[in-house]
Structures are given as C-alpha cells and as structure tokens.
Input
Amino acid sequence: MKYWLLCLLFIALAACVHKASTTVRPGNTAPVVIICDSNDIGYLTAIKPIFRNNCYSCHNDSVTHTAEGQGLDLEDTSSLKNYLKYDFQGDGIYGSRLYHCLLHSFGALQMPPAYTIDSCSLKKVRNWLSHGAPLN
Output
C-alpha cells in the first residue's frame, strides 16, 4: 500500500512544471514571452505610463481639483513631487507609502482598489523610488 502511495505522490510531483510567463495574442499561434526591463526608471518613459494606465482615472487634474480640492494629482509633476517629499517614512523603499499602496501591503490604502498592478510595473516603481524618484 505504501509503495502505491509513494508512486502516486511521485507522479503528482513530477507533473508540476514551472513555465515562463507567456501571452498568446489573438490570431497568433506562437506564444510571446514578455520580458520586464525594470532597469528603465525614467519617469517619462517608464513610470508615467504606469500611472497613466492605472491611476489617472482617479488621480488626475479634473478629479482631484473638484469641490473638495484634495487628493493626489499624478498628472501634475509638482503635485507628485510634493507628495514624494512626505512619502518616505524611513527604511528606504520599504518606508514608501506610495510603494505599499501599489503593493497592496497589509494596512496600506490599496491602490488601485479594484486590482493589483502587474509585477513588472511594481519592480519599475520600486527601482524608481529607490533611486530617489527622479522626475525626468
């Protein structure tokens, strides 16, 4: 009996295989491997597109400057720069409130609230913040 259980366990473990992240586009039968270049930390080339695709629907000029007049306007670099001055609570990148919001850390305000940003984008933001969040 033990022999059969061990064989079954071995077969189950042997069937587990880790595969690289691939995407198959419609009309294309060949999978496309997505490579993450997290070394690109330029604000205009790497970070702003992440904010535009994931944050601008709530954190833009028209939404943040409404009747309340409060909120973080990520379209406005001076607003972002002002926010980043008070963002870090010590301990380098791991003290960044912005990073923990995007990471959906326990106890942080989860942004965006409906979903988690992809891991490649999070790596880019982490590298950008660890290099002092330059707005170039």
